[in-house]
Amino acid sequence: MQIKDKSPEELQELAQKIRQRILEVVSRNGGHLSSTLGAVDLIIGMHYVFDAQKDPFIFDVSHQAYAHKLLTDRWDAFDTLRQFGGISGYTNPEESPYDYYKAGHSSTSISLAVGAAKAIRLKGEDRIPVVMIGDGSMSAGMVYEALNELGDRKYPVVIILNDNEMSIAKPIGAISRYLSKGMAGPFYQKLKRKTESLLEMLPEGATYMAKKFEESFRLITPGMLFEELGIEYIGPIDGHDIPSIIHTLQIAKSMGKPVIVHAQTIKGKGYKIAEGPLEHWHGVGPFDIETGEPLKKSAGAKSATQIFSETLQELASRDEKIVGVTAAMPGGTGLSPLLEKYPERFWDVGIAEQHAVTSMGPLAKEGFKPFCAIYSTFLQRGYDQVIHDIALMNVGVTFAIDRAGIVGEDGETHQGAFDISYLRPIPNMTLMAPFNERSFKKALRFAVDFPMPLAIRYPRGAFMAEDFDVPDYETGRAHLLREGEEVLFVGYGNGVGRALETAKHLEELRPAILDLRFVKPLDRELLRELARRYRQWFVFSEGARIGGVASALEEFFEEEGIEGVTLESFEYEDRFIPHGKTEVVEEHLGLRPNQLARKVAQRLETSSKDGGDGRVYNSEKKSVSKG
Ligand SMILES: Cc1ncc(C[n+]2csc(CCOP(=O)(O)OP(=O)(O)O)c2C)c(N)n1
Ligand SMILES: CC(=O)[C@@H](O)[C@H](O)COP(=O)(O)O
Ligand SMILES: [Mg+2]
């Protein structure tokens, strides 16, 4: 959409229309609401001053970039936001050439801009990267790695710091406090303008004074941090005053050096119900625009997160050695009530997964029992810290890995696909996974006194399996849920529920069902016995096939010299998993129970024809007959 020729009034109207479009679609599809509404005016300013056809537009996390999508040929397609096969909730160059880079994890934008600036310089092109990064995303160390180089190399980059004084929840830490210094408010602005106009009237000789005065102002604005790093700072400006945004971005662009434009915005701007520091409106499901009420009442089984939250609260009330940390996801991980109740034992460290992981190590060393609550996908950001600061020291930190498996509409940057594969190779790590409410509670109780690094993974939303009791956990011990004939279903975590559901579609075939419980260490004794009794194994686990549960079992067969057991894995193939409702994505991957039942039947038919055990399984009739 060409907007450079629009008047300020027309740009105001456009902002209104964009907000209405966002509200219309997000109220129907769900998505990120308050971040996107708050960024509309700044994004209009970006498109007015820069050229998205040549300048790299880089959004940090990019959850706030809906207005950018609406301004770049996706107005109609926006109806398909976050739906399977529709447009993503994040930037994606495969979706549009106006999206410079994929994102979804925070704090990568300035590094991307530095890289782009290097390429532009090497190619001698007239292009300038423009970044939007939120105040919450400024808490991650990666930002300072990038600023450190940028301030030194002085590449022309314009960074818009979209400061709405919110992360998902209230931002924590010195950086956010620094950015929202009191003097950066309207009072300071007025005083600064008055002083500048006064100084302009002074005689030539007074310029030295003016300079000093101007510098002293910088001491009381958030600009100093950046200025000291060699990055020009402009602001704070009103991030909803489009003419002022345009004027400031034009100045920043003309400076030909790295510049941070600090814009103060209101999260949720334009939709009164969502305006302000309201965590709920960061990411929402479908809702009634008039009332703001969710359209889908969250009925049904408790989510795994709720089980985690309630159980840890109960455990923490009885054991003051239990401590915990979240990296800016207090609500999503269920730690919010613990942060409130035990502020001296539970911490939100901001978007700082590396720091969250490492800082728990000394607590374990000092005799505490730390729980690091973190999404599978975000733990990737603290991977070396798991190895270097937790496993190598062999200290008893428990990683409560939420969102393990397919997460749905957040798509390829957020799927919890890799934690089994990336944690299993690490020495001293123990990996376990519950599959329903009671097993999860028992797993957490087991974790409290487990003295070494431990990873417990669990899915987004409710477990697939119903709730029933299981034996207490013992390290490395699996549990055979039911005996069967010929075929063994090996379930791990939520995969146990999937195995149980799949078995229901195979009436006459009564597979044995194993709850593996630990993928490291394996229950070698029981697995040896099962390999003697069951020659066809099917693996149900919600993670990548490579390095996952089937890989672990194949390694086990190899080490034990076990032959003649066929193993089929229903884990994820070697590709990124797209966005969409979880059930729809699973259907696309052929992982719904009815689909898996067909695959089992086909496999058995094939193997019986190949001189298997003489029985023929008819997948249509779902019957077994003697060959
Ligand atoms: C590495 C990483 N950790 C956590 C998240 C989850 N997350 C997504 S947006 C967000 C808050 C971002 O706050 P801010 O940058 O201020 O953007 P705003 O939504 O306020 O515009 C968080 C914590 C993430 N995307 N990436
Ligand atoms: C943008 C981002 O990374 C978070 O808002 C994420 O979308 C939260 O995911 P959940 O909705 O699973 O908590
Ligand atoms: Mg923010």
What would your notes on this structure say?
The model is unreliable at 612-616 (pLDDT under 50). The N and C termini lie far apart (67 Å). The chain has a seven-stranded mixed β-sheet with strand order 9-8-10-11-13-12-17, with helices on both faces. The protein has a five-stranded parallel β-sheet with strand order 2-3-4-6-5, with helices on both faces. A five-stranded mixed β-sheet has the order 14-16-15-18-19, sandwiched between helices. It is elongated, with a radius of gyration of 28 Å. Helices cover 40% and strands 15% of the residues. It has three domains: 45-64 and 90-170 and 222-265, Rossmann fold, CATH 3.40.50.970; 304-457, Rossmann fold; 479-626, Rossmann fold (3-Layer(aba) Sandwich), CATH 3.40.50.920. With 627 residues, the protein is of the alpha/beta class. It has 24 helices and 21 strands. 1-deoxy-D-xylulose-5-phosphate binds at residues 61, 63, 168, 282-283, 332, 403, 407, 410, 460.
